[in-house]
User: Fold these one by one.
Assistant:
Number 1:
Amino acid sequence: MDSTTTGAPVLRLRGIRKTFGPKVAIDAMDLEVTAGEVHALCGENGAGKSTLMNILVGIHQPDSGEITVRGRPERIDGPAGASRLGIGMVHQHFTLVPSMTVAENIYLGRQPRRWGLLADRRAMRRAAGELLERYGFPLDPDQKVGELAVGQRQRVEIVKALAFDAEILILDEPTAVLTPAEVDELMDVIAGLRERGRTVLFITHKLREVKAVADRVTVIRHGLSVGTRDTEGLAESEIAGLMVGRSVFMADRRQTTAGAFDGAPALLELDAVSCENAEGRRTLDEVALTIRPGEILGIAGIEGNGQTELAEAVTGLRRVTGGRVLLDGRDLTSATPRERREAGTAFIPEDRLDRGLSPEMSVAENLGASNYRRAGLVRRGMVSQSALRAYASGRITEFDIRGAQPDTPVGTLSGGNMQKVVVARELAREPALLVVAQPTRGVDIGASEFVHRQILAAAGRGTAVLLISSELSEVLALSDRIGVMLQGRLVEVIDTAEATETRLGLAMSGATGDGTGGPGTDDAGGTTSHAGTGTERKAAS
Amino acid sequence: MTTTPTTSTTGPGLAPKPPGPQGPAGPTESARRIREIWVSVRKPLFSVALTLVLGFGIVLLVSDQPLHAYEQLFVANFSTPANFGNLLMRSAPLLLIALGIVFSFRAGVFNVGGEGQLYVGAVAAAATGLALPGLPGPLLITACVAAGVVAGALLAWIPAILKVTWGVDEVVITLMLNFIAILFTSYLVANPLRDPEAYGATSRMLPEQSWLPAIPGLPTGNIGFVIALLLVPAAWLLLFRTVWGADLRAAGTNLRFAETVGVRGRREIILSMLLSGALAGVAGAVYVLGTGHRFEQNFSPEFGLIALTVALLARLHPVGVLLTSLFYAAMLNGAAYMQIATNVPRSLVSLLTGLLVLLMTVEVRRRRRRGQAKEVSA
């Protein structure tokens, strides 16, 4: 990272303020982006990131404040105006037409014309091909966008923004929709853009990405910029602290627990468990694993490699076609979800709105579900409303579920607070086994930290935890041992002390790497190893 | 029509409340309850009021005595004890079937077979009454109602078991079973159960000790309505105050959530359908024992279908069902009085009920959108 050239700011915001009715979205925002740098903009959900971006591309007008582009004060009156100023935007949700080709999408609405009327398709295809080549994107201009993978579509979106000489490219949470491998490739793309002299403003709330690719980072909180820092030598916990306004707990298990469980009897044991989907294909292929009381087994892997099936096989929500599931020595292979819960299994599912909650029902009823009798809320056959309300209020306080009253429909809470409801309900069961899938997806930093603490506390009380996550950093930070899922198989289970992002990344992608990097060379968040996996993947494909 | 209940699961325990910054202390318990109830009833009340106003406008156009017509439509129901008794007995089957619909729809099972379940309940009650003429009154009544319960539940069990075993759509099956049940009971009453001395397809009269006793002071009303009335709080308690009710509603609002937290979804589906069919069967028994005193072919003016509207307008809430069934019964009976006394045709009632459904539906959709907006801004 040598490009911290402190030149003149190409883009400068001073005291930008924007309100929507009584709600202040942005309050006195300052931002300075230097030409040729990759600048990350970080903040929790609702901090004002998206509003700021919409102001930069002219979708919203600020109530007050000044925008300076290349030293000249400007008024950006719309996306076309932004484009004239050389500002291009890649939205989080793609704006491509799936039935059109790559070239057509790039030039949509701006096709080269022949005789001022007919679209010059040949010129368009040639220009699109040149653009794709210039940025090193191996895409066919004639291919239909609908046939492309998500990561490829995003490149089309990037090229579309660059096609009209955007000098400043804004990426709005570009990694939200990508697989880990695609994220690595995107990081390379961004680095490549910087080499070609473009300025990139990169919005994210993922700290790993900030460290990986940005030169500087501006953190915003509650509509205010709280600081701009060089990323060189900046710890992730510092960025997180700026985002939430206090110091943040970053879990790290590996020093404390190495070897702590050797010799203990297994609480959960899977013996060659297999599942098949409707077409008879194996979605879970002879998975064998054990978890001991108090141990956290992390399962890493690119999504769709059998993680969902694994969680459902353990919790009884999916029929197992082969193998055995043993809990504390009891064979639960054919037990129903209810029987398994009664035997001590709790489950925090990957999608809280799908399996985790009933959004239309109240917070109290979502907390109470399956816990009514256990929590002593049933009096003479009836659920005591005062007891239920008191119980819910207790959990709301204990788990810091914000914006919630016992009667609030749970679907109106924010993602992080909904997740806390799920966590509160499941942990109230004092489970022997906790199955957790994607516990912090779509959850802000404060809530993530809270959920992580709860998982660690449960393990501390002796709960065996099966933690499934596609966030490598999460798996690395919380687990005692780590397994990797690939095409329905559990391909590698290693102690966290021996795990590095490189080694896990190789296992996730199916490359039979020798685990270079060695133990202990890289800290919980992982900093630079992505580049290695990214390039190796590209070379392989 | 079958899609609306998913949006209208609001009971008093669930009334939406703006998550305002009122702190954990909040308002007092009783004030809170009153506010909740008001929030959940104000929109239906407004819809009813608007329907009546618009309906009055129509009456103004077609009649030279509009006030008299409206008076007959609503006030005549309460003008004599006999009229009032008729009103109660008209509402009883609606109320019972609609309570059953509440259970099935709350469980996410769309039982639209109330009509058929009503018929088999009625014919079973009649057959039992005719078969056991020697029993004393209370025993015979109990036996007849029990027969109605079993028949209705059995008919509802068929679509339930088909649904949980093979995923067969219950709407189609319950709807088709209506025809089968009506035609089957027609066959029964035209052949084995037929009263040879009567003109038309009716059964013989039931023994007099099986007739439901009248409500004191209301010669035309009988304790069939009281039975229905007592089932309202029972249904409410079962649905909103028991673990089983909570499980049932969990299954109805999000079946995948329900199975994740250990609710036995298949069991809830079957139980809710059994209960639903049983209540429609009681409605049939109450009609035979209290009003008809025998089984008549095609005796129902589509009680089963009207009850569907009654339940949906009440937002699948037992107490609401009591009010809407009385309202519908008042409209149905009042229409007859109105047609006799004035030149306004009774089909005005179809128009008014259609309007009411329309207004309530408009209102439901608007609420859903606001719910989403809240989520976005949160």
Number 2:
Amino acid sequence: MSEEYENKSGYQAQSSETISGSSSGITPDMDYVRPAENAEQDLYHPHSFIEKWVFCQDAKVIGVQYFLTAVFTGVVGLILSWLMRLQLGFPGLAGFITAEHYYQFVTMHGMIMVVYFLTALFLGGFGNYLIPLMVGARDMVFPYVNMLSFWMFFVAVAVLMASFFVPGGPTGAGWTLYPPQTILEGTPGHGYGILLMLISLALFVIGFTMGGLNYMITILQARTRGMTLMRMPLTVWGIFTATVLAMLAFPALLVSSIMMTLDKLLGTSFFMPTILKAGEVLEYGGGSPILFQHLFWFFGHPEVYIVALPAFGIVSDLISVHARKNIFGYRMMVWAIVGIGALSFFVWAHHMYVSGMNPWFGFFFASTTLIIAVPTAMKVYNWILTLWRGNIRINTVMLWCLGFIVTFVNGGITGIFLGNVSVDVPLSDTYFVVAHFHMVMGIAPLMVIMGAIYHWFPLVAGKMLNENLGKWHFWTTFLGAYSIYFPMHYLGFIGVPRRYYEMYDSPYMTSGVGLNEFISTAAFIVGAAQLILVFNIIKTMKTGKKAGQNPWKANSLEWFTSTVPPEHGNFGDRLPVVHRWPYDFNVPGAEEDYLPQTAAPSEVAHTEVEKT
Amino acid sequence: MEETKKKEQSGSTHKIGIYLWIWGLLFVLSFFSYLVDWYQFQGMLRWSLILFFMFLKAGLIMAFFMHLYWERYALVNVLLWPMTAIVCFVALMIAEGKYTLFSRLFYFFVGG
Amino acid sequence: MSDPKIEGFELEKGFRGMAKDTGSDQTMFKGVHWGKAMMWIFLLSDTFVFSCFLIAYMKGRASTPAEWPNPSEVFALDAFGVPVPLLLIALMTFVLITSSGTMALAVKYGYERNRKMCGYLILATALGGLTFVGMQAYEWSKLIHEGVRPWENPFGAAQFGSFFFMITGFHGTHVSIGVIFLFIYCYKVFAGHYEEGKRGWFTKMKGDYVEVEILGLYWHFVDLVWVFIFAFFYLW
């Protein structure tokens, strides 16, 4: 443990003894923190290379494993989007992209990006790495289960990728996998492809359940002394609420996968109505396709927030640290996260306005959808008010955060359009919807991920990423992403339907041809621009300057580990003791512009600190 | 130290009587719900009796066999509040089921 | 179990206690073992799985225009030449509730460190579970003989067979997994692993009698689900 750490964390005693002698007017129990409830965690230290790097039980290594696997799937998803844009912008240029291939690309791109990339990256990657560090635990509470969780995810990814190589290729039913067409002849990949997809999803759910239990119990039951729920960084709150959502929403996905698998393999008719095919009645009959849609979106809508909430949490922390100002309305932020999480289970059918469900549902779901916009808007106001009169550092991390706010507001406002039934009906299944959800849950969370990479790379690797390259990376990505998705709103207004392989000479497309070419070109550039980050990381690892401890002068516990990067067990001999929230920046009267969570009240006796 | 620890742990268990009582009650309630079928009650009476006995049994199992009655409210509330999502889902699916049946009968047999 | 004692923290009752626990540091569920908390959250998640199954069943049954078979007749069993409605199901319910009761007692004796009693009761629970699975296998084979298939059945709506095999199958899988673990824990209790704090085979973590309670929670949950299946599938 470093000297600096010893000093910063101040009062360290593990028993209930209090500081005695109050010559400087400090009351004796000012620094008192309850003794530890939990026994010291029993850790299994690795004995071999395989135990250290492959079947590792250290949450930090598991986090990096999750991160890299998720990034791999993300790259596959990116390449698929390139191929789609190639076809849309320049039809016929790449002859190998048939209509079947195009649908397969759409499906796999959607499923990969939403489930295997964003969910795994935020919860598996950032969650595993940051939760134990931020709440002051030595590791996740069940390290072995945590390890199994990653390998289950790995197998799920392997199964998913295998579907590219089976006869018939991956499924091309669209990422929502709506029956009946998903498992009927004529849909690409209706044989092995869909089967592997369903198996992979089931494996993902099982693996995620193992991880999710770990995240939840670590946050609820293994916080360090002094760490109350209302002293946790918002990152942890976001990841926590997202995990709760996942634990309760993934069951619906599991159930619908199982039922669809049975429809496919055994010929049951859960989702399959009576179907006439070329004048012939198929074996199926009596099932309810709309039931699948309900089950799917009962999972699918919370899933949107599973991706969004960790992003909300992380961006709050990044903004606060880099604006050197406490987060505006911390408690409001927490309640907004929890409220969004709770409400997200009551809005699912706004994805189904045109599906032929009970028409009265429109009232209910439009209302709940507009209500959920309230806490979301509160969060946006709070981010802006955090920036207001802050001591803003315009560095790469801050740029990504600002980019996030802009794209998120943009995507959120189009969400208000789509949440109203009467506006949604004409816009449904047009590029307006594509633009909306890519802005709000594609680009916006991606901006946060990039910001988070620049922010926490010094912790994980111990070196600072290059700022100049980072700014190039940001501006190309930000402007490029806007060039892609902003014109799509217009395409939607003129009625261009999504998921179409080719528009041919349809009248509304004639004005859109140029736009489509422009969008595609931008997409190629933005995708390639991500190589700047790869180059930056390689360059930094070789020649980057050492980060040292706490380079951003942040307050939360992950920057106060015994070594940088943190070792197994995170905090050396003694766990830190927490005395305050993580947002004490520029406290009047303090010597430095930040007070770590471990700073005891007696150390900063002359400051005016809000009691948290 | 070991001794006191042992004592504390054994002190925290409940009397055997309560388990036997609940056990007996569960048998009786199961028997009653079986009788609902035996006497072929129909309609609302049948459904409400089934639900009544079901929730009573479920409540007893959760409260006493799973010790939820003795757990602290923090845990109890965390476990029970998410059920509102399920209740909402059930309520909406009842409406949806009726609507699907209606539209099937209407469009298939009446012909729109 | 009853309220734990926590140094430096006064436990209060009711909602006030909930607010205080939630607002405190370190743990939210005071005195609850990590593994037990994990099992509760897992069961919450599993509740959603079964709820989704049952909701799907409800929606499927409510929206099918075909006649739904009368479970009272389909599941009747001939006893001494007279068809008794739901006889087998009643017996299965009896067996499962019995095993749930023995499990509850096993947990109690585990905490009292009564190794023998705890072990025998877990064994009884496991045997009860095994009987249940056996009876379910009999029920399935009987229905299959009568021509019920997941995709069709002679009594009416095809979805009847689909939902029946899927939901009871999923529940039966839970029971079977539970039985396997009951046998493992039975061995571990008799071998005294929880008294000497022997490390687990895979996790390398020390065990304690609280693990019996955790397994007990799972087993009662299986019973709980059966209460709902019994009501909604066999009686409704």
